[in-house]
Amino acid sequence: MSENPIRVTVFRWAGAWGPFKVNIPCGECSLTKDVIQDTIETELAGVPVVVDMRDWLTEWWKPLFKGGWHAPIVLVEGKIVSQGAALNRGVLTQAVIEAHARRTPSPGNHVFGKATCPHCVRAKGYLDEAGIDYAYHDVVKEPRALYEMLARVKPIVGPKTPVTVPQIWIDGKYVGGADDLQKITQLDVEPNTDRGQCSLSPGSMTKTAA
Description:
- By secondary structure, the chain is of the alpha+beta class.
- It has two domains: 6-103, 3-Layer(aba) Sandwich (Glutaredoxin), CATH 3.40.30.10; 110-204, 3-Layer(aba) Sandwich (Glutaredoxin).
- The chain has helices at residues 27-41, 61-64, 89-103, 118-130, 143-157, 178-185, and strands spanning 6-12, 16-17, 20-21, 49-55, 73-76, 79-83, 110-113, 135-138, 167-170, 173-176.
- Helix 4 runs parallel beside helix 6 (178-185).
- The longest helix has 15 residues, at 27-41.
- The chain starts with 5 loop residues before the first strand and ends in a 25-residue tail after the last helix.
């Protein structure tokens, strides 16, 4: 487990406080637990997540300060994402991926795009011609890819700037779209294995001699 996992806290309908005790089990709480476990194993595979199950009645005041009063209450990194109903796995996936993207860099080369986007095809072509390996993420077919792309690009371009595809990172550094990548591929793209850095890295570009 990573030293800095994403924390998911669940307050279920259970526990006791003073003379009061929960005797009737909560079906939606059980469903929520199962949804969390399955989502961690599938959509969130590879993302470090720790789950903290707590009894609501025993600690009812803790989620109340954050606006949570109706179990099951689910928090991701201390922020409520669901309460009063069985958890939607898409909501959990988005919240965890956003939190993970904020604190974790994405090393390597990545292209976020979609199949019907000609600019995405063009961007992949530039990288293929340059002989640069990259990971391609389809934001339509892969919800996790969409959440990660938005979480990583919005802090860079601003919350009011529309986000289009492709969105490209080289050596973990943000490049932009296909036109931005084209400008880079017109420079020196010969591999430099001694430095262990991609020759397309924005920080390693030098103009080709005329």
